[in-house]
Amino acid sequence: MTITSPSADLGARGREWLPEARRIVVKVGSSSLTTIRGGISEQSLAALVNTLAERANAGTEIVLVSSGAIAAGLAPLGLAKRPRDLATQQAAASVGQGLLMARYTQAFGAHGVTVSQVLLTADDLVRRTQYKNAHRALEKLLHLGVVPVVNENDTVATHEIRFGDNDRLAALVAHLVHADALVLLSDVDSVYTGPPSAGGVRIPQVRGTDDLDGVVIGSTGAAGVGTGGMATKVEAASIAASSGIPALVTSTAAAHHALAGEDVGTWFSVSGRRKPVRLLWLAHLAATRGTLTLDDGAVRAVAQRHRSLLPAGITAVTGDFEAGDPVEIADQAGKVVARGLVNFSADELPGMLGRSTKELGRELGPEYERVVVHTDDLVIV
Question: Contacts for 97-102 with beta carbons within 8 Å, 24 or more apart?
Answer without folding.
Answer: 97/69, 97/72, 97/73, 97/151, 97/154, 97/155, 99/40, 99/72, 99/73, 100/33, 100/40, 100/66, 100/68, 100/69, 100/72, 100/151, 101/149
